[in-house]
Amino acid sequence: MPEELEGLYYRGTLSPPAIEFASPQGKQLFTEALEGGTMEGFFKLISYYQTQSEINYCGIASLAMVFNALAIDPGRTWKGPWRWFDDTMLDSCEPLSKIKDEGVSFAKVAYSAYCNGANVEAFRTNESSIDDFRRHVISSASSSEDSHHVITSYHRQVFKQNGNGHYSPIGGYHAGRDMVLILDVARFKYPPHWMPLTLLWEAMDTIDESTGQHRGFMVISRSHKAFVSSLMHSSGHEDLKKVAKYLIEDVPPRMKLKDIKGVENILSVLFKSAPVDLKDFIKCVAEFWRQEDAGVFSSKIEKEEVLKLVEETELFKHLNRWLASEISSCKSLISFGFNENTVFHMKLSLLDQTCRKETNLTLAKADGAKPMTLVSGKIRTNGIDQGIDMLLVPSSLTSQSRNLLHPSTAGILTLLVLALRQRTWAGIKQENLLAQFNHLTSIDNLPTPLQLEVLHLRRQLHFLMIDLRGPSLSG
């Protein structure tokens, strides 16, 4: 080796029992597996086979490859007019700078798949079995419809390979030899190769030292908007897209232009400039939540748990304080014993939130045993007075029954803020405030039920934006 190349590496040599895909034996295995019908998933994957662009990008490069094979629309451009997944676009689970330095955990790769519009089933080896893994591999390899693909997380040293933890998709299966084809995304290091499934399972059944948890595998499939984008089925679909556009495209520049000095100030900038359709968005989310099969969780007990988790977040407490401040300008309605969230929901419903300046409201207790209050008055909108009469149930009702049937506005707004990606707030000039708000809106340490519900809402916003931007270009 020339002296100037000493200490540098050029592709490692595979150790037995690995078999290089392009070798005569590897070609024979491919031919036999093809004849056996367990190479059907190979062709789409190989059409989008890519090399990870950074040393630690194996997880997100595997996702990009699978997303493109499944024809998932990224909802944003790669270069020029082309909508295409590249590993440098997948920063939804961690900032790319952090992934470049540290890699990414199994859980966060799965969350990234979910955030980018895919269905994902993640299995750690201590929660699954080798037989389950084999069934998923065979199902993926045998599917002629290219409906799903398997990504594995394993430790290279079990294969006597250079490196530690790694991710790569499975490209096929040989039933006679019980071997899988690993499409290694680190092609600068190792070529695609066949490996005994039992040895791959052994490499997966290791502990990731960065998390203390087992590695495993995930099954990625394409989500169908008809099933996952529940917001898009509403009658005000076009109005909801305006809200999604405001939140995703219009809010980030506002964070740069405003002299923002505190958390409540951020919330004011975020919501006071929102389109009037925000009230319909909130109503849609609340109505959707009441459906038995809505969201990630369907039972009343599970939904009650998620709502309690929402109310335990620091962000929810900040939103409550901000709402209370806003409502105080509405003739101090909460002094009559009403929950501030209920009143704010009413305020949002009053057309364009002009009650702060134009409304004269009076409250009166109704006769009878049941606690209820009549809110009567007028609201001026565009110079025209309109009468309003609203019958409200006071907040003395149990929080369990009220919240379950009618999630508070503060709760919905909390979910909505958490569903926005953290790059939304990157323009905040005060570093301490930016760090504080990033901490408040981070989903990394949220309990799993709440985290999944936030990701579900994030996907709804994602699909609304895809619809807003129109169909993909082709050709």
Q: If you had to describe this structure to a student in words, what would you say it looks like?
A:
By secondary structure, the chain is of the alpha+beta class. The protein has 19 helices and 12 strands. Helix 3 runs parallel beside helix 5 (106-115) and helix 10 crosses helix 13. The two termini are 46 Å apart. This is Glutathione gamma-glutamylcysteinyltransferase.
Q: How are the elements arranged and paired?
A:
Layout: E1 19-20, H1 24-35, H2 42-47, H3 58-69, H4 96-102, H5 106-115, E2 118-124, H6 130-142, E3 148-155, E4 165-174, E5 179-182, E6 193-196, H7 197-204, E7 207-208, E8 213-214, E9 216-222, H8 225-228, H9 237-257, H10 263-272, H11 278-290, H12 300-311, H13 314-327, H14 340-349, H15 355-358, E10 360-365, E11 373-381, E12 384-392, H16 399-405, H17 409-419, H18 431-441, H19 448-469
Antiparallel strand pairs: 1-6, 2-9, 3-4, 3-9, 4-5, 5-6, 7-8, 10-11, 11-12
How would you sum up this structure in a few lines?
This is Glutathione gamma-glutamylcysteinyltransferase. The chain has helices at 24-35, 42-47, 58-69, 96-102, 106-115, 130-142, 197-204, 225-228, 237-257, 263-272, 278-290, 300-311, 314-327, 340-349, 355-358, 399-405, 409-419, 431-441, 448-469, and strands at residues 19-20, 118-124, 148-155, 165-174, 179-182, 193-196, 207-208, 213-214, 216-222, 360-365, 373-381, 384-392.
